[in-house]
Design a protein that fits this description.
A 5-stranded mixed sheet has the order 1-2-5-7-6. A hairpin with a 2-residue loop joins strand 3 and strand 4. It has 3 helices and 7 strands; from the N terminus they run E-E-E-E-H-H-E-H-E-E. It has one domain: 2-Layer Sandwich (uncharacterized conserved protein from methanopyrus kandleri fold like), CATH 3.30.1860. 22% of the residues are buried. The chain starts with a strand and ends with a strand. It is of the alpha+beta class and 95 residues long.
Length: 95
């Protein structure tokens, strides 16, 4: 998990399952790189993720576990998730 603070906008929280860091997923003709630079390279607890998600204005999620935590908090609906190379992905914008 990595929290990006954007002046005047709030926090962008990027969360992915740890096994996805530095992996490249394929979606048609597009490669999607899951970089540690954006998603972070430090493992965190589920509770740390829950706390960060609740204070975010923008959330970017990759992975079964990451998306499940957001679903548990009522932030993501499974029907709104994309599946990229077998991996669920969701973006949330809270206005």
């Amino acid at each position: 998990m990595k929290v990006h603070r954007v002046r005047g906008e709030g926090e962008v929280v990027a969360v992915c399952d740890s096994d996805l860091v530095d992996r490249t997923l394929r979606h048609g003709d597009v490669d999607v790189k899951i970089s540690g630079g954006f998603y972070g390279d430090r493992q965190v607890t589920d509770e740390e993720v829950r706390e960060a998600l609740q204070g975010a204005c923008n959330i970017n999620l990759f992975g079964h576990r990451a998306v499940a935590l957001a679903r548990e908090l009522g932030l993501v609906d499974e029907a709104c998730c994309l599946v990229i190379d077998g991996v669920p992905h969701a973006q949330v914008y809270l206005l």
